[in-house]
## 1
Amino acid sequence: MFADVIIDISAEALDRTFQYRIPEILREQVKLGTPVSVPFGRNKKLRQGYVVNISAEPSFDPSKIKEIVKVEKNLVSIKSQSIQLAGFIRDRYGTTMNEALKTVIPVKKKIKNLEEVFLTLRVDEEEARARLSEYRRKNHKAKERLLEAICDNEVVTSRDAKHELNISKSTIDALVKDGVINVDRERKYRNVVSDNVDNSAGEKVLNTEQQFIVDDFKKEYMSGVRRPYYIYGITGSGKTEVYINIIKDVVAQGKQVIVLIPEISLTFQTVARFKNVFGDRVSVLHSKLSEGERYDQYDRAQRGELDIMIGPRSALFTPFSDLGLIVMDEEHDGGYISDRSPKYHSDEVALFRAEMTGASVVFGSATPSVKAYLKMQKGIYKTYRLDKRAGNAKLPSVSVVDLREEFRSGNRSILSELLQEKICDRLNKGEQTILFLNRRGYASFVSCRNCGNVIQCSHCDISLKAHKDYSGRIRKLMCHYCGDTVPMPEKCPKCGKPYIGTFGMGTQKVEEMLQKRLPNARIMRMDADTTAGKRGHERIIEEFRAGRADILIGTQMIVKGHDFPGVTLVAALAADMSMFDNDYQSMERTFQLLHQASGRAGRGDKEGEVIIQTYSPDNYVIKSVKAQDPSIFYENELAYRNLMSYPPYQYLLMINISGNSKSYVEKLCSKLAGWINKNYEGIKLIGPNLDLITKRNDKYVMDMYLKSEEQERLIGLKEDIQKEVEGSRLPVRIQFEIK
Ligand code: ADP
Ligand code: ZN
């Protein structure tokens, strides 16, 4: 028998398998996904790798095929399903099989099992008591202490013996040797789910709309239908309650469920609610767990000791053997797209895994991605709507403040008159306020504080990005799509006033300013600086929820999915900050953020209020949020995307080329551009603009974009490009992303 092995070395060029003979003695152990050691290269050094294929026939001269040396017992084996998933990721996102395999095994190394050691009597109690007197007589204090405790309690753990009775291991050994006690070991899992379940949650009686979804899903599921669904329900409409009830039905079929949430900071709340219902059959998997904790959860899933795994995108790769459902909450969230290579999109991987294993997928959000919205319109996703808030909570009222007018009337601070008034009102009433700044695109686009005009590319309908010189002054504005460059204007081209500049202010500054103005307010700040550590997010969120501050200031992370019953005022300090990023999704992100934020106000019994400060009150995003009518946004946005040939109407393949040498990067870019233009009719190439090579982490980086109506064509092209780049033998790295 022969095995194709992926060698575990990071050299990207080696994206292929090597064949080895499976020796007789290993035949039982070597299976698909088994980690092995094999001799590799000229010096036959031992390397680790994974078996990805097994065949009876050799694919070349058998006399030249080396043998697998051993099975790597300390590495986790890969399920054959995961190998298929890795194959999908490699083909779809342009990465090596090795890297794709690393992605699908969230846990690689086996970590030593934890044990609980139980000490019990080996003899009957009478005899034990006799021994006890003997130890007492002989003044064997430690033995006496331990035996007495075991006599009194029947069982004592070695941990208690050590910490509470101050007993050393040698004392335990001595009692074993005396034949008085037994030592039993039991595997113990590292506990990753906090024990304080959310008791206030309790089980809810579903309302009619919720019950309809649960019944309809169940009916289809029981009759064998597997497909993607979308629960499009406003914030607070009770989507999580629906997931829980759907999951109950799937779990009752003996199947397992993966529940994806966009980021770690949301796990805590979600897990507490699930634990209420499903108890110990729920666990979590995320990057802030220790290696041992992660390994244990992975292993429990593999052993069938769990029904539900909750976590951010990597939980998608939980090794369940009979997966029945994947739930993806807050589908629109950017956290679902991997930020490192391979840059996989969780929705696509979820759909692939579900199809492969015969599972359904349930997406949910109050603000679906534009991509998902179109799929709902086309009926690819079966859509359920939830248009009312569950329980009695009412929708908040939304007001928009025109910052241009504030500026003209002499208010130069970031807090409008209206907002200041409302904050003071909340302080007086003892209610809470959330203020947030969206720092994406921070200080990157240039606008006029007087009229709100944002300087845009005359060719692309996308904002120009400021480029600072070495002294920090902005001299040039550039379009990152077509590369057009204009000098930084002195005056606003629209209103002629000189109040033009980049836009922005950090959360820390807002905090300082607010504290000065409201010395008695208790203010908390949550951003990347204040949330370091394993439970940084949780701590701040829990403290704020518990009412230990009046005002929470933060970046977009505070408005994502959290449930704060005491908050009655939410304000976006500068809604525009993310509207003019330089890609086609900036309006979508802004809409989602503002809409989600408004959902944070008034989740308790009190009515909530939302204030949106903006320089562009007439923008359709702002109008849609103000009217609390998402269809205004989706209709405008779909029309715009269609007009501009952006996804989801056309697809973009982003090619990212990087290397240590600027000239090699340039050379490859030009070469590829020529090659694509010559060979691929109907595929539009944007870039490269060689003036825009930037330096990131000491590497020269350049992006190129290809556009096509057919996603499949771009995937095929990606492979051709990869071959072309390998053929060129230039020392550059190439990465792809399909949008
Ligand atoms: P979503 O996930 O749609 O934002 P949640 O599931 O978090 O909504 O529900 C919002 C709030 O409403 C929660 O506090 C939840 O406990 C409560 N809730 C949900 N369904 C019901 C129901 N049927 N009856 C009463 N309260 C409910
Ligand atoms: Zn342009």
## 2
Amino acid sequence: MEAVMRVGAISLACLAFCTTCLPCWSRAQTPGDAPHLTKQGNATQLVVDGKPFLILSGELTNNAATALEPMEPIWPKLVSSNLNTVLVGVSWAQFEPEEGKFHYSLVDGVIAKARENHLHIVFLWFGCWKNGTSSYPPYWVKKDYERFPRIQIGEGKTVSISGPVELLSTLSEATRDADARAFAALMGHIKEMDGAQHTVLMMQVENEVGVLRDTRDRSPAANRAFAGPVPQELMNYLQTHRDTLIPELRDVWAANGYKKSGTWEEVFGPGKPASLEIPIQTTAAFLGPLEHENSWQNLHWASDEIFMAWNYAHFLEKVVQSGKAAYNIPMYVNAWLQQPNHAWPGTYPSGGPLPQVHDIWRAGAPDIDILAPDLYLEYFDSVCERFTRNGNPLFIPETSTNSANAIVAFGKYNAIGFSPFGIDGNRPIPPELAATYSLLNDISPMILAHQGTDTITAVRLNQGDSPKHVKLGNYTLTLTYTGRSAHIAPQPKGETIPSQVPSTLQAAPEPPLEAAAILISTGPDEYYFAGGGMRIDFTPNTPGPQNIGLGDVQQGKFVDGKWVVTRQIAGDDDAQGEILILRPNTILRVTLYRFP
Ligand code: DGJ
């Protein structure tokens, strides 16, 4: 048995089997290049110092890094939970407290501490907007409402509805230029500090932009723009991309006759009348079952949301261009999602980078690299599906600490990164997440070599789920839930485990494990599996003998790109070679053979 094997060797073997699985770092990369994105098959990967990189991260609460001293106890927590990156907010108010005077010491301090702890950073630029509203701009911006106008909603109200909610308008060049200048200063400084070391990987530009409490801005300037023609630039984009537009958008354009020009309402249908009140987010009426099923994934008063998406995108394109001119690293925007019971624009930020308006964002802000979901919803997979349409890369800047979701994001949706929100919060970081990050780190060379090809996928299984069948490589894999139990279940392959596991088999009164695993086919008869809580059976899908034997079953991990075996499995651990269980938090390399 060869206990050590290079990923390169595996990939070469794999190349004979699948021509699309060349690892992307085999292409010429310069270690000195700034972090950037590259395509591998249908995946987009982040390249750091010449190698693709998975961001295993967490986002700090909003104001955690507004001073360095309170951060001291947080750094070791991040390290001991196996994060390799942390998402950190930068407040415009703190960065430019007086116009034109930039304060760099906090940013420098955060970068220095991250380096000391061998962590990377994604900075979140809390500029004009944060959760739709404008609480992070400096005092000199906030108080000058003439130079920096606010939106209006309803029938001419300024923005205060149930409290002092305040949104800067997208339609002011002065506001846009002030934000862009500050962001460019930040990026220029990051380049100076980090252009060689690459501690900072990417930038989030603003946070969850969009109009709240109404479907669109109704200030006089906005009403004038809304009554005018859809910009030619957007019409050209729609026509050029007509066949590949996101269906929700194409449907509204089609319903209005695929017009090539006209006002927003002529091209996309009616907006909401100003007099019609919509419930505010917290008091939105419950939807009926049908609406619950469908309505929250569609455009409502489409022209309003599309108009706002165009204006936010157009504004942010200028900010991003200014930032990239100073230092060009990947930049993304994040979306507060539409959801059941918050289905109408305005109950979530209208015009944010939501899936139904991704095309509008692509047209208005081509320099934004990623449109990212803040993904707290239970419909994790379907949101990932919607955010990866038309090649949008998946980066999840905010989510819960659900480990199964991390596995599915990287293995099935080619994610660049995963980042639970509030990682510095009062509660400890769950050990399950720390274990999953360790596992993902150990298998990352293999994930990165296969993302974007048809040789990698992931599954999740909950207790009581029927077995899943996945065609991968030369075999169909049948995955059956086993949960935390290390016990080899006696049931025949493909049979559902009863949802009540006998109490004698339960190690501790914990909630049932949500099982998840990344499955990678690396050769005609070779697989890597990472994750756990399931039994794996194989059925050949090529001609030849139908009986399958387990060849080498090795538990291990990649160290410096080499596969290192930590346990060779046979005998009692695989029922004398008859049953393969992927136990929780395990990486297995498995070879198969066939016999008559
Ligand atoms: C989403 C925002 O983007 C975060 O900054 C934070 O406010 C969370 N919501 C709080 O749940």
